[in-house]
Amino acid sequence: MKRTRIGIGAALTAGALATAGLVYAPAAAAVEPGTATVQADCGIYGGGEATLTATQDGTTATITVTSSEITTPVAVEANSVETTMTMAKGDGGTTEFSGSSNPAMEAGGGVDSGPLTGTVASGDSLDAFPGSLTLVVMGISVTCESTGPQSPGPFVFD
Length: 158
Hints:
Blueprint lengths: L1 H23 L6 E2 L2 E7 L5 E11 L2 E12 L10 E8 L4 E6 L10 E10 L5 E13 L2 E7 L8 E3 L1
């Protein structure tokens, strides 16, 4: 019986310490909104609406770009597209996000690129307009220019 009490006491103590650790753990950084859309013109490669999904971990932020309207003319292997997204900072200047992480994409399929990684500071406000998205596929560079502000508004980083 005494062993059972010690075991239960140890379990309760461990549970209380774990709960206290959660209470005092630093809050995860947040970006608002988490998802936005933007219209883009990719010249002879077409254009349309793209969805931007943002996350933040301290000063590192990621943007993932997906679109069913902006398509790839050829099949693309996974992790083979070099992507750079330039976003306008609310207080002037720009911030770049880059990476070469993408799933395999079928010819005629929608673009899916990211996460693209960049550095942000607390309070940064970033908008895809005016901004650009450059994709390098098999040595061919495609630049898409935003044609209006992102909706519902710029990403604001915590």
